[in-house]
Amino acid sequence: MNPDEAVAFPAVNVALKDGRSATLRLLGRTDGEALAAFYAAVPPDDVRFYCPHPLTKPEALKKAASADDSRFVCLVGVAEKGDIAGYAWYRWQADDSPSSGFGICIRRDFQGSGLARALMADLLKIAARVGPPVMHLTVQKANPRAVALYRKMGFTVVREQVRDFDNEPEYCMERKVKVRRQGLGRAQVSPEMSRRRRS
Length: 199
Hints:
Aminopeptidase; 7 helices
């Protein structure tokens, strides 16, 4: 994200369902090694759910290096020990792009904790002010937990397709984003999110 815009979205703390807490903040240019360690913790069985995005150290360093890109927004969930426990991002190609592509990855020991929902909720609030009016994603049919989460967060299936590189059936889902014109800043926090945040 453009640094001039990023100042409007400071880090926030969230209380997770299992009693732990995490800090949600924008990815920084110095986060490459931490992101690489996060990628290395993803079990081989889960890697297929993130294709075609490689979970490698070079990709982690590349992503961190692009943290200030004006067409890329990435939130990381930082655990109490300072390690990255999850991240969510969206990216678009041009200033007039009609939609952005979305991705999310949560470390296994934080799955089910509410971190994914918290990251998505905050990211969608940023997307309501920065970027295209529509967000899209693809998700394998074999990942019903993710499909259910996306539906809860307002995404709907627009078509079914088969990935051309491994013939895996997947959904293409979209969510409209209400763009606000009155400047930057986080949207009003919902009562649910307020209960989960800690100062």
